[in-house]
Design goal:
rod-shaped, alpha+beta, 5-stranded mixed sheet, 60s Ribosomal Protein L30, Chain: A
Length: 252
């Protein structure tokens, strides 16, 4: 009889006990994923926030106190700081080149036979036809050789590429030697560049162009303006505008 009474008073089994195990498992999984996230590459501020949150969640216990597994990301450097320095350096180089040329060619600048400008390409030196050539000719005058000697001394040690451009006005030319203004502009730029090469300018740094009448700096409506368009431009290219040198393939 006593045994039956004891069995009748036994507490019923708790059918919802599995929920406690399930809740513990979910909590552990949550902690695992948070730790895995923290172990990825984070910056220091985010890591500290995660560590504080974990400490609070687990009752103030120290979690990841030694920062193991964390690779902090250093603060990124200021954007474009090197680019700005390069621009300042490039501008300083151009100013120095321009000042040196102004000093060397001061008398020709004062006589309006030479002018110098700085633009996005670099430093451009305008040499008028009256300084360099006789009308319709590509033979350099003695005065032109004197100017080119001074320019060559200044340019030959520069790392910049040099572009020599021939320009004419819009008055047609048709001779046996020069059937068009294209022929004349190319011949003048070629002779100017070749003379500078003979005076020590690196030929690998020089290129020549002929623009004929199609790159005027003044309207071609007066004799004075047409005279300014008949010129050779020597462009000292910015270093960041220089085209990469072509690769030389050795012959077998």
């Amino acid at each position: 009889m006593s045994r039956k009474k004891r069995r009748g008073h036994e507490e019923p089994e708790n059918a919802e006990r599995w929920l406690l195990t399930y809740a513990d498992l979910i909590t552990l999984l949550l902690g695992l994923f948070v730790i895995l996230y923290a172990m990825s590459k984070l910056d220091q501020a985010k890591y500290n926030e995660v560590a504080i949150a974990l400490n609070q969640a687990f009752g103030g216990k120290t979690i990841l106190a030694d920062h193991s597994g964390i690779t902090p990301i250093p603060a990124p450097p200021p954007q474009n700081s090197s680019d700005n320095n390069d621009e300042v350096s490039s501008d300083s180089d151009e100013n120095e080149i321009s000042q040196n040329i102004n000093k060397a060619l001061e008398q020709y600048i004062q006589s309006a036979k030479v002018s110098i400008i700085e633009n996005s390409e670099g430093v451009t030196i305008h040499l008028l036809e009256t300084l360099l050539f006789e009308t319709g000719s590509d033979n350099l005058k003695p005065e032109a050789q004197n100017v080119l000697n001074k320019l060559s001394d200044l340019i030959q040690n520069l790392p910049n590429n040099i572009r020599v451009e021939g320009h004419t006005d819009n008055v047609p030319i048709n001779t046996i030697q020069f059937p068009s203004n294209w022929h004349l502009s190319i011949a003048r730029s070629l002779n100017t560049a070749y003379y500078m090469i003979q005076k020590g300018v690196n030929p690998q740094k020089i290129s020549i162009l002929g623009y004929s009448e199609y790159k005027p700096i003044r309207p071609n409506d007066t004799p004075e303006d047409r005279a300014k368009n008949r010129r050779v431009d020597i462009v000292i290219m910015k270093l960041d505008n220089d085209h990469p040198e072509p690769q030389i393939i050795p012959q077998n």
